[in-house]
């Protein structure tokens, strides 16, 4: 199909589906087809019998299967399927998995792409079917400045996803500026997995997470900044902390120690932490651990090192890597 057909068809059905038409007004169509992957492959594999010329077999599939197919598409690509036929007109409004990627807007130019991406996601969430729940919400985004409105937009998206009972939440921020996360919206009995990259977790985040998200089992942090003094959870089973900075807090006398207390965690990955080395406490269920850190990136003393090793003594499968000078713990004789 040619691009000219797409624009004509989108305009033709726009009168019946003003929601999609407005979204297309804001995000021009690329060359057709707009997707890559499972939908295009599925259409190629479907063989139309000679006696059923012109039959659209994919459109005859149940909504649940079509939603499954659309969940492999980026959000912008999923919206664009509304031009396929009347059957597809409103399917994008109830897709349970949303994958919003700012790279889909790179053709606008770096700075304008940020504006267009925010506009698109705001409209997408606004125009979704209000009774449709959400299973997963994932977005990748870059902030070009420290304007707080950018964080306000992303925090509003997260709050919307949690209100729609999302079980999986992933936010990936480019390393230009960290996302200042508003932890007050983290109240959900459905949320099971969180993945954050390039996010700042302020004081009180983990306390809110423990109280407000009782079903959370998997937490993945990458290139984040943790200001909280204590990571505490009774429900987490998998904890991954990758190249994350633990902010060093200094009180009147000494450095405030960071700690991790998660008695239900069975799998821990701690790769190249920076700032303050967190002390592991109450890790009684830990079975598998992969720990790697360097003295040149993280602050600790010999006692911290000893306590860290002791907390891993009951692990069945352990991978441990330390880079730095020999650490000695002096024990006074009685």
UniProtKB/TrEMBL annotation:
CDD domains: F-box_AtFBL13-like (cd22160). Signal peptide: none annotated. Residues 55-91 form the F-box domain. PROSITE patterns: FBOX (PS50181). It holds the Pfam family F-box. InterPro entries: F-box-like_dom_sf (IPR036047), F-box_AtFBL13-like (IPR053781), F-box_dom (IPR001810), F-box_SCFL_complex_component (IPR053197). This is F-box domain-containing protein. It comes from Oryza sativa subsp. indica.
């Amino acid at each position: 199909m040619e691009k000219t057909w797409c624009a004509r068809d989108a305009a033709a059905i726009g009168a019946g589906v003003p929601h999609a038409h407005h979204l297309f007004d804001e995000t021009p169509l690329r060359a057709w087809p707009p997707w890559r992957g499972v939908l295009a492959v599925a259409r190629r594999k479907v063989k139309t019998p000679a006696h059923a010329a012109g039959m659209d077999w994919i459109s005859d599939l149940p909504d649940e299967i079509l939603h499954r197919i659309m969940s492999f598409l980026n959000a912008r690509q999923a919206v664009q399927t509304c031009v396929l036929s009347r059957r597809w007109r409103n399917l994008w409004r109830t897709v349970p998995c949303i994958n919003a990627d700012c790279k889909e807007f790179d053709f606008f130019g770096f700075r304008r792409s940020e504006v267009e991406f925010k506009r698109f996601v705001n409209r997408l969430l606004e125009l979704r079917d209000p009774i449709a729940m959400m299973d997963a919400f994932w977005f990748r985004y870059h902030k070009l400045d420290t304007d707080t409105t950018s964080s306000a937009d992303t925090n509003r998206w997260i709050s919307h996803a949690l209100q729609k009972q999302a079980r999986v939440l992933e936010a990936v921020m480019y390393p230009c500026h960290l996302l200042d996360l508003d932890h007050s919206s983290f109240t959900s009995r459905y949320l099971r997995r969180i993945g954050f990259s390039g996010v700042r977790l302020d004081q009180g985040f983990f306390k809110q997470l423990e109280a407000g998200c009782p079903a959370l089992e998997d937490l993945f942090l990458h290139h984040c900044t943790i200001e909280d003094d204590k990571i505490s959870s009774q429900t987490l089973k998998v904890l991954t902390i990758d190249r994350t900075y633990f902010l060093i807090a200094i009180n009147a006398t000494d450095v405030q120690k960071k700690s991790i207390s998660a008695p239900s965690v069975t799998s821990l990955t701690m790769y190249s932490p920076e700032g303050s080395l967190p002390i592991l406490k109450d890790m009684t269920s830990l079975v598998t651990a992969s720990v790697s850190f360097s003295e040149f990136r993280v602050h600790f003393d010999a006692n911290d090192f000893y306590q860290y090793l002791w907390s891993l003594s009951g692990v069945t499968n352990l991978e441990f890597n330390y880079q730095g000078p020999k650490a000695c713990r002096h024990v006074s004789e009685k």
